[in-house]
Amino acid sequence: MPPVTSTPSSNTSNLATRTSCPQTGVPPIDGYLVCKGPHWLKDCPTATQAQRDEAIRKYRETKAQKLASMRSKAARYSGTTSSVRINGLIEMPYSLDTAADQSVMPQDELNSLRAMQPTLEVLKLPVAMEAVMANGQTQMCVDEVLLDLELATVAGSVASLRSVPCLVLAGDGDEFLLGREVFKGLGIDDEVDEFPVGDEIPLPPGATETENSLDQLIKRAVTNGLPVDQVGALRELVAAFPDIWRDGVGPGPPADVEPLRVTVQPDAVPYRSQSRKYAPLQAQYIRDYVKTLVDNGLVDPNNASRWACAVVPVHKPGTRDKFRLTIDYRPANNVTIPIAGGMPSAASLLDAFENFKNKKVFGRVDFTRGFWQIRLHEDSREMFSIITPDGVFTSTRVPQGGMDSELHFQNQVQAKLAPLIPHSAIVWVDDVLLFAPTVYMFLKTLRTYFEIVHKARFKLNMANSSLFEVEILLCGRLISGEGVRHDPTRVIALAILPLPVTVADLQYFVCTTNWLHDSLPDYARMIAPLQDKLNAERSRIGRRNRNALNVATTRSANERAIYDAVVALVADSALMTFPDANAELLLFTDASATGYGIIVTQARDWDAALPVDRQHHELVICKGGTFKHSERNWSVPKGSRLFCDHANLAYIFPPDVELKKHVRDRLQRWAMRLCGLHYTIEHFPGEKHVWADIVSRWNTRATVQIASVQTRSHQSPPVSSLSRLRPLDDENFVFPSREDIKVAQEAASRERSRLNNFSEEEDGVVTIDHRIWIPTAAHDLLARIFVVSHCGTQGHRGQEPMLLVLKNRFHISRLEDKLAKFVRKCLLCKHFKGPRQIRRPYGPLLTPVRRNEIVHWDYLTLGEGFGDSSYLLVVNDGISHFCELFPCGSPTAYIAAEALTLWHARYGLPDTLLSDQ
Predict the structure, then answer these.
(1) How far apart are the first and last CA of the chain?
(2) Is residue 298 packed enough to be buried (19+ CB in 10 Å), middle (13-18) or exposed (0-12)?
(3) Which of 59, 145, 294, 394 is least surrounded by CB atoms within 10 angstroms?
(4) 290/352 same-domain check
(5) Is 243 part of any domain?
């Protein structure tokens, strides 16, 4: 597909285009094609025009031969199925067309994706794009969508690509077109000249890196809704501060803030870790990483340091040869006196959401390796030294992992941004959230922020920053001018969770849903039975860590209904609005013998002619709880709605009613508290007090007692009756049939009801995207399918070939994890632990249970120095390890027979003789 262009041509396109770079590089020092001198071809003093033309022709022929060789190699794999997984939901073939400027997705496939992911946003392009097809025809593209892509190739899965902009092409195409920018992100660029000779030498790599990052930053802002007439102003503003942007660690002075000075306990003893041994890849990574820090002045060699903490390289998620360097600063933190203060929590940020009221424009800016930008005081540097295979190095900047590091960084950033806090900015460690009511005010706020950052010498990261959003994600909540709502991806993920299988799964579900309780009315009452069950399980097990709780648990029908009710409540998570000073604020409370409920709403357009239950309410916050143990013994006065019913509150100021002394004192205290508030008390009959009354008075369910608990280690493995060595050759093995799949699908009706997009064929078999759906609970069926795909005619396939074969035919949830577990248990496959192979016998192990049942015998070579006794025959009992030694001059069968005959004469005939001879 030829490059995608925009129309009209006078407007600026946000897509990459092919442009010719001016010749600004250094001439080749190894000489050019004609005279071998260090100059360009056009500047050669001796070459004629014919020689120049001939040199260019030979160069182009060489380049064409190289490209033809590459195409022939690629053609060998042209028949291999390549697919792309989009947003983790659907898969479709993709075309390796690097001539396209941008990735393209057919409209029909996008409709299928939106059916499974209703929250997917399709954005309107500010300028219509003209797509030139391979046949010369053109189509107009007006929509764009951001997708997460995961490519599957013959070499396995490629790392996921996040938020890739893709054009939407009208039609019913069946292939996903990958653009040039996707391949550039993977390090593949067909425009890079592999023969940088003469006039076609490109610019040095990275020469336009800042410009490209700036274009991406502006493009993200336009995609998020930045008005077209403000694009120029934003570009000019960002370009005015080029020195505040940096992608990674680099040289330069630290930020102009107070250095971190750590106070150590008076009796602290310096700690020096022992030198550790690392794998070759880890050692090389540590060496390269520390060299980068030394070159940029972030650490200094200091082998005389009395302190030294160990470095611990850990694998990056999803990789085997990429690491992240962590440092064990626990010995230094144990003797540190922490500075006063506390890090901002999610609760404190929720209190700060009041500042977002009437704010329509948001932005997020991230610091580049924020801790490394702040200087560490000279008195505190030695205790943060690290020991590596190449020696000890002392940090000159604030280390990540120190006890005071995060709080000091937070305090310094807040001090610098004091003119913007809290009305225009909020600081969350190294993320800064900016907001304003209009685009014009936001650009002014952004300029003020850039000026502060420039003056303080902070460095920002373009890749992780967003300069314009109408709804921004913070602490798992989406914030907009309308209010605060929870991230839909989290809510959807919780709403489709299957029933908890283990106690750890139940604990995870309860704790995760509790994060949403502020927007879930009646949450405390509904989750109470599951919380009671979790407490009973943890008390029975006696331990609370996740590994100890990985034991199976049972579920009653009542508990399934409770779980479904909580999941439905999570799916209907309400939007929490910002309190409005001009709106009527309403507080609904109620308490009963079983629990309490508190709901705060507001009505912007209060209609005095309508009753309160007919007003348009907007949720501000809701709380609720159940009474347990001693809380049930509280004395409750007659009339449970003491704080909400006018008939009860009237007794606080009785003009002619005689009350008892203890009641009068209590009412007087309440009256003094109420005098400081501005409120209006209205009578609200209990039969209309629906919200809080339902929360507090709904019948609580009794705690379900556990019938039985069975650990995972004692569960019967799938196809346990077959041979573990060669299950496919077992006479009892039954190949899975379509009827078996249909029966398994009918048994998994609950899981089937949660499928987002499925179709049912004529024979009743459920398919998803034209692939047969296999239920997760059908363990025996899954095992038989895995056996067939693993132990087929092609021998024992590896995990990746099995994955490609099964993905084309079946839809199996978490297929990668299931395959990895299955392959690990194969006795005939080679398994590795690090660089070492785990050796396993190719046959069943014989384990004796009585003496003289199994006898092992073998020859041991002693050497020629022992003369006639250069060999030693060892005969050993398998269970008692009693052995007899027979020296001999040669290892012959006659000597072995004589020795075993003597063993039989003394101890009897062994049942089995084992030897490798």
Answers:
(1) 67
(2) buried
(3) 294
(4) yes
(5) no
| Cα–Cα–Cα angle for 740, 743, 748, rounded to 5 degrees | 125
For the stretch 422-448, pLDDT in tens is 788 888 777 888 888 888 888 999 999
Query: Is residue 439 domain-shared with residue 498, that is, in the same domain?
Result: no
Q: Is 894 helix (H, G, I), strand (E, B) or coil?
A: helix
Is the Cβ–Cβ distance between 731 and 739 less than 8 Å? no
For residues 180 and 133, membership in a common domain is answered with yes
pLDDT in tens, 497-542: 677 778 888 887 887 777 676 667 777 777 888 888 888 877 777 6
Same domain (yes/no): 813, 880: no
Average pLDDT of the chain, as a whole number: 74
134 and 39 both lie in a single domain = yes
d(CA 133, CA 167): 13
In 3D space, the residue among 533, 837, 535 whose CA is nearest the CA of residue 702 turns out to be 533
Q: Is residue 374 part of a domain?
A: yes
SS3 162: strand
- Tally of domains within the chain: 6
Residue 187 structure tokens: 């390090």
Cα distances from 283 to residues 62, 277, 318, in angstroms, run 41, 8, 20
| Statement to judge: residues 467 and 492 lie in one domain | no
d(CA 583, CA 571): 28
Residue 309 lies in a domain: yes
d(CA 144, CA 134): 21
Q: Considering the domain boundaries, does residue 165 fall inside one? A: yes
* Same domain assignment for residues 281 and 393: yes
CB 703 within 8 A of CB 559: no
Burial (0-12, 13-18, 19+ Cβ within 10 Å), 525: buried
Total residue count of the chain as it appears in this document: 917
The single residue listed with the structure tokens 């005959």 is: 901
Put simply, whether the predicted model's pTM sits higher than 0.70 gets the answer no
Q: Which domain range does residue 426 map to?
A: 263-480
What's the rounded Cα separation, in Å, for the pair 372 and 361?
30
The beta-carbon contacts of 725-730 under 8 Å, at least 24 apart in sequence, are 725/827, 725/828, 725/843, 725/844, 726/791, 726/828, 727/787, 727/791, 728/787, 728/788, 728/791, 728/792
**Could you please report the per-residue DSSP string of 712-772?**
GGGSPPTTTTS-SS-GGG-TT-----HHHHHHHHHHTHHHHHT-SS-EE-TTS-EEETTEE
Same domain for 467 and 325: yes
Write out pLDDT tens, residues 183-232.
665 655 544 444 333 333 333 344 444 556 778 888 888 888 888 888 88
Q: Which tokens hold the place of 591?
A: 């308490």
